[in-house]
Write a structure and sequence with these properties.
The chain has about 160 residues and is mainly β. It has one helix and eleven strands. Helix content is about 10%, strand content about 45%. The longest helix has 19 residues.
Length: about 160
């Protein structure tokens, strides 16, 4: 039988402190983020678009997300803009790759925008980081993939 004196002893408080420490440690443990999945996307280039480097996101009724990259410089319409989209849980990192194109093609125009269709996202809230190493620009934003949701973020210089 445990007496009242045990609850007032040093041993009781040491055991209580250890149990509390274990509970706090499990509560503070970060969640597992899951495995990384990478999707490679080719953009549809257009000579029409905004002059300011920016990204626009639009959640469509189908569940797909339309991403438009405006303000592209130094790429002709016979070049390419592609994305490597890496997802870990609800965190998305997008790496942009630019290919200038053939300067000798007289039919090529200067591309101002590129459009992508992200068809692999669920109806969730995502944290997005967009990186363009070739231009030194990036943006961070949030996407709530619900029909009608729109977001626009200006790309800024990495510091």
């Amino acid at each position: 039988m445990i007496t009242l004196a045990f609850y007032q002893s040093v041993e009781f408080y040491v055991i209580a402190f250890l149990v509390a420490s274990v509970v706090v440690a499990f509560a503070m443990k970060p969640q597992a983020r899951g495995e990384a999945r990478t999707h490679l996307l080719a953009g549809e280039l257009s000579p029409v678009g905004g002059d300011t480097p920016a990204i626009r996101l639009e959640a469509m009724d189908s569940g797909y997300v339309r991403l438009v990259r405006d303000g592209i410089e130094g790429v002709s319409t016979n070049g390419a803009v592609s994305l490597a989209v890496t997802m870990i849980g609800f965190d998305i990192t997008i790496e942009e790759r630019l290919v200038r194109g053939n300067d000798f093609d007289i039919n090529a125009e200067t591309a101002k925008s590129a459009e992508f269709l992200l068809d692999f996202l669920g109806r969730e809230r995502y944290h997005i980081r967009y990186n363009s190493d070739s231009t030194g620009l990036f943006a961070v934003t949030t996407l709530n993939n619900r029909p009608g949701y729109k977001a626009e973020k200006t790309l800024t210089v990495k510091s």
